[in-house]
Specification:
By secondary structure, the chain is mainly beta. The protein has 2 domains: 1-121; 123-212, 10 Kd Chaperonin, Protein Cpn10, Chain O (Roll). The protein has 1 helix and 15 strands, in the order βββββββββββαββββ. The protein has one helix spanning 161-167, and strands spanning 17-21, 29-31, 37-39, 53-58, 71-74, 86-88, 91-95, 108-112, 118-120, 125-132, 151-159, 174-178, 183-187, 190-195, 200-204. The chain has a 7-stranded antiparallel sheet, with no helix packed on it. β13 (183-187) and β14 form a beta hairpin. The chain is globular and about 75 Å long. It starts with 16 loop residues before the first strand and ends in an 8-residue tail after the last strand.
């Protein structure tokens, strides 16, 4: 009879994925202005109240700069009710792809550094939505106002230096991106969109026109 192998799941070393502890996968209650707490049934729409962050247990080999215990944000597929990326108890894994062409496969979005700053992982950028292409002035393109806009404009809030250098951008720049690609993440109470570089269309000049 083989002996059962026991180990400490909170003290393992990752091989090629992020491993993190997620104590609570959903916000199952809301508080009113009066302080009254109401419980929410998430079975009918389990995506909206989902928690998108956890605590790093171990980072993959090519991401060792992310320390154990750091706060990490991830894609909702990690903790979805059907087929979650669950290892055991409250421990989940996040796929990580550091290549530019395949960053859609990266479920690890960003982490909080020891000094409290936020740094996206891989090639992601975090933007604050500030407008749409409706009414955008440009000497290079003509904007037609439509009911269903396909692009949005966001101000870059977080991006790692490699991504900024590669695309010749800086924090605070306004970029236009495909609306269908935006993915909302709550970063410490701030609602931001995670943008994949393939869906970023162009940078907006200070005068509001398209930068060629």
């Amino acid at each position: 009879m083989k002996a059962e192998i026991t180990y400490d799941i909170y003290n393992v070393r990752s091989i090629n994925k992020f491993i993190a502890r997620v104590e609570k996968t959903h916000n199952d209650s809301i508080k009113s202005d009066s302080g009254l707490e109401l419980w929410v049934d998430n079975r009918y729409n389990e995506h909206l109240p989902r928690v998108h962050h956890g605590t790093v247990i171990s980072a993959p080999k090519n991401c060792q700069y992310v320390p154990k215990g750091a706060k990490i944000w991830f894609h909702h597929n990690v903790t979805k009710l059907l087929s979650p990326q669950k290892i055991a108890k409250d421990v989940y894994y996040m796929t990580y792809d550091d290549t530019l062409d395949n960053c859609i496969n990266n479920h690890a979005i960003a982490y909080e550094k020891e000094d409290g700053t936020i740094e996206p992982l891989g090639w992601f950028m975090m933007v604050n939505p500030v407008g749409t292409t409706e009414g955008l002035k440009s000497d290079a393109i003509q904007i037609v106002n439509l009911k269903n806009l396909k692009e949005d404009i966001g101000e870059i809030v977080y991006a790692n230096q490699r991504t900024l250098d590669y695309f010749q951008l800086k924090i605070g720049d306004k970029i236009c991106y495909q609306k269908s690609s935006r993915y909302e993440v709550d970063i410490n109470g701030q609602k931001l969109f995670r943008i994949r570089p393939q869906t970023a269309l162009y940078k907006i000049k200070e005068d509001g026109s398209k930068e060629s």
